[in-house]
């Protein structure tokens, strides 16, 4: 029985890997063609290839659920076309055993994709963004952040013009409020973090607002109490899909403490967390169709069906997630509902085929 499990599993595994390679390759080629117009004397084709290559791990993790669906259709479909599945069933092997053998490699690949999304793709994606900005002239090499960023921390609104790779801040403007009333505006040339709750501001100019007049002052150094961390500033300049699960969780917690909207970051967090479950749900749907309407179909029909099912699932996942952002539903439900519906539908169809 173990030999049979390995045989079915290897067939599915090879098909999923092949489909993932094709999907990532097509994405690379299409993106290159779309971005080739950016090439000039400074932004060369080599730089563009480097940026696209750094983004490949993220694309691989993103495409794994759909690749698992299409790969399962191809792998099991090939066995069904040669009547090997029929022979297995005639030998008394239950459908659930064949399904389990097909699901094992997909679960392993899905967990591998989760590890890539946590440890590999965020580092590569953020490096790609930095290289892209450097070559486009939007950032300087000694600055990890430039171009300005707005944050809210401890009830104050803060504008930071730039931050270097050591976490030092430059040209900081702090808008100190008292209720809805603006109390003080402070401008500092630079700031260095002392500890988790304090920053040292240097070359400060302050304007304090009273009911009948404004007072200005200037000091060389001043301590600023704030829960702001330099890594949070860096995270604020990154798109949610380029952050790891740990970074998404940390930054969401920081935004929640400041009373700010965390929807986009929570949505991306749960989207990445539930990718293995998405892969499993799509594979179960694929297995149910192989033993059902696609049993005698051609390979082209199976691939076409897999693409249609994958697109329908991804679109429903996107729409449900975005709907949760504009409604009172938590983002976790926006991601989980389509996955659960797909999983329940696949299990129901599989039970009917048994």
TrEMBL record:
The reply to whether Lipoprotein figures as a keyword in the UniProt entry is: no
Name the UniProt key words of this record, in alphabetical order. Cell membrane, Membrane, Transmembrane, Transmembrane helix
Output the Gene Ontology cellular-component terms: ATP-binding cassette (ABC) transporter complex
Example of a GO biological process term? transmembrane transport
How does it associate, per the subunit comment?
Component of the lipopolysaccharide transport and assembly complex. The LptBFG transporter is composed of two ATP-binding proteins (LptB) and two transmembrane proteins (LptF and LptG).
Give the family, as the similarity comment puts it: Belongs to the LptF/LptG family.
Which named protein is this? LPS export ABC transporter permease LptG
